Amino acid sequence: MHDEPALDSRIAAAAARLARARFVAALTGAGVSAESGVPTFRDALTGLWATFDPRELATPSAFARNPKRVWDWYAERRAQVASVEPNAAHRALAEIERRAPRFLLATQNVDGLHARAGSRALVELHGNIARVKCSACARIAQRWDEALDALPPRCARCGEFLRPDVVWFEELLPAGALAAAEDAARECDVLLVVGTSAEVYPAAALPDAARAAGACVIEVNPDTTPLSARADFALRGRAGVILPALVRAAWPDSLGSASAVRDAASG
Ligand code: APR
């Protein structure tokens, strides 16, 4: 699987920290869903922002300028996310939650795949694409009609446009989710940082807050990021390969093989 002896020994050392941790926290980004077929944002050719301009699709002013275009783009992504399955990385994080005495997963992803893989101690820092809310009164819409000619649909209470319940650039993160993630970063013994370019704040500030509080930071990413040089362990590889290996090394009894992860997650 991974033929670098160095990587194996670094996985073993990182797993030893994971196994003895009282409180494990995790921060994830788009890379954790890449192996499910969900495009990341900044990967050179395949990332969404390589094809689309975030200023035209992921800001309040873009929505004000062209609400239908923004609505359609998120509706397409919503359908794509609904058509894929969680992968071994999502399942391994759900397994870590079951194994660690205390755990919190803070995700930047809006795809809902962590919850579908069985994660429960979970906060969504950037919202969730499956939810829709009013762009004015913020009321969550239980249902809406995609077949309307004049899209986006309108709020049943105040009549303003509905929008995806995700955090756009220039917008504040949900206060409760951010506070929970910041507390976890300050209190955890180990912070796993998986599949994020560590460039978008305030989420990207969490690893340094954890380091400053004495936590061990384990980064999992096939590429180098601005965080890599400051991580205690920078494990180069795909999350769907490295995370199950970390779990097997940390809790050898829990997973005879990769399929045990699958069985555990599907119950
Ligand atoms: N396993 C682990 N990491 C991977 C994998 C994989 N299989 N494939 C790609 N990656 C890594 C890339 O190397 C990159 O560092 O995932 C990272 C994805 O980075 P971004 O595309 O920038 O995504 P993210 O960090 O989640 O972006 C943060 O920016 O656009 C906004 O709101 C959006 O939540 C998003 C935020």
Descriptive overview:
There is one protein chain. Mean pLDDT is 91; it is low at 257-267. With 267 residues, the protein is α/β, with parallel strands linked by helices. Strand 2, helix 7 and strand 3 form a beta-alpha-beta unit. The longest helix is centred in the first third of the chain and has 16 residues, at 67-82. The chain contains 11 helices and 9 strands. Bound molecules: adenosine-5-diphosphoribose. Adenosine-5-diphosphoribose binds next to loops.
List all distinct small molecules, including ions and cofactors, that are bound in this structure: adenosine-5-diphosphoribose
> Strand count, sense and closure of the main sheet?
6 strands, parallel
Strand content: 15-25%
> What Rg, in angstroms, do the CA atoms define?
19 Å
* Average pLDDT, all residues: 91
What would you call the shape?
A: elongated
Helix coverage percent: 25-40%
Derived from helix and strand composition plus strand pairing, the structural class reads: alpha/beta
- In the predicted model, the low-confidence regions spanning at least 5 consecutive residues are 257-267
- Reading side by side through the largest sheet, how are the strands ordered? 3-2-1-7-8-9
Number of strand elements:
9
Kindly report how far apart the N and C termini lie: 27 Å
Number of helices: 11
List the defining traits of the structure above:
alpha/beta, 267 residues, elongated, single chain, 6-stranded parallel sheet, 3-stranded antiparallel sheet, binds adenosine-5-diphosphoribose
